[in-house]
Write a structure and sequence with these properties.
- It is a single chain.
- By secondary structure, the chain is mostly helical.
- The protein is built from eleven helices and no strands.
- The N and C termini lie far apart (61 Å).
Length: 297
């Protein structure tokens, strides 16, 4: 009975979104995107699209999304939004991070990306424009992928903090007490494989078109670079996502090393109480701000 109710709710939600979508104006970018997509299908093989297309999407999205945080360090006005203001970025740290990233991207992640074509063939995942899901389906699928990845990340990330194995694997990622955007994928190769597995579970569950692979890559990179940015910028659109953790939540994890293990959402830390130190820290900050205001007045 409960299952039927859930299905009915989902169907109703789908019909409601579809109805609203029918009133929205046509996307002016849809036709150029369609032309570009069909041009790609006509001029490249599925192997080339799945392999090199996925690599280009990952590299372009990663480093473009890192640009704002990188630029912030040169803008004095933005320093008031930096979470750990006593720990500025240095060229030495950023160069070290960049070199490790290149190694991980091309010697760890690229071999995995090379399996994308065989994955799409095995599961008969389409590439054609006509098979591409509507934008709201894509958004829902990416959210579903995020929920699955977040659960995987919470439990495996917490395991990597176990005192018997922390120093062998996850300690690499924690070399930077004050994180910055580019450091999001700075990790031991084994960690890249262990935590990265969570990224693929949602793809296996939801993927009905190759576009989801790329959309989910962009969404996941957007989230992880944001929470590692080191800046809590107001009017961040990601803060509109329900239960979104954000930069301040994850920054505390790098500063404290214990707690706040989830990647995207706050619910697992709340359920298991691993956000207790963060909550206490926020309460302490509020009290200090009130004392400062009283002294100023």
């Amino acid at each position: 009975m409960a299952m039927n109710d859930s299905v009915n709710i989902l169907n109703s939600a789908y019909l409601a979104v579809e109805y609203i979508d029918s009133f929205l104006p046509d996307n002016p970018l849809q036709q150029p995107f369609k032309n570009a997509w069909n041009y790609m299908l006509d001029n490249y093989t599925k192997f080339q699209i799945a392999t090199w297309g996925s690599l280009i999407v990952h590299e372009a999205a990663y480093f473009l999304l890192c640009v704002p945080g990188f630029v912030f360090q040169f803008i004095p006005y933005m320093q008031k939004y930096k979470i750990q203001q006593d720990k500025p970025e240095t060229w030495e740290k950023q160069w070290k991070c960049f070199k490790t990233l290149l190694f991980n991207h091309f010697f760890i992640q690229l071999p995995l990306i090379c399996g994308t074509y065989y994955f799409t063939e095995y599961f008969n995942i389409p590439y054609e424009w006509e098979e591409m899901p509507r934008w709201y389906i894509l958004v829902a699928q990416c959210f579903g992928c995020a929920v699955i990845e977040d659960a995987w990340h919470y439990f495996l990330h917490r395991l990597l903090h176990h005192k018997r194995i922390y120093k062998y694997i996850h300690k690499v990622h924690h070399e930077f007490v004050s994180p910055f955007g580019m450091q999001a994928e700075y990790a031991h190769p084994l960690e890249t494989l262990i935590l990265g597995t969570g990224f693929f579970i949602g793809i296996v569950v939801f993927c009905n078109h190759v576009i989801l692979l790329w959309a989910w890559v962009i969404c996941r990179l957007m989230e992880t670079i944001d929470v590692h940015s080191g800046y809590d910028v107001p009017l961040n659109p990601l803060h509109l996502v329900p239960f979104y953790a954000g930069a301040r939540f994850h920054d505390f994890h790098h500063m404290n090393f214990i707690g706040n293990y989830a990647s995207t959402f706050t619910w697992w830390d709340r359920i298991f109480g691993t956000d207790s130190q963060f909550i206490a820290y926020k309460e302490k900050e509020k009290k200090q701000q009130l004392i400062t205001k009283k002294k100023a007045n």
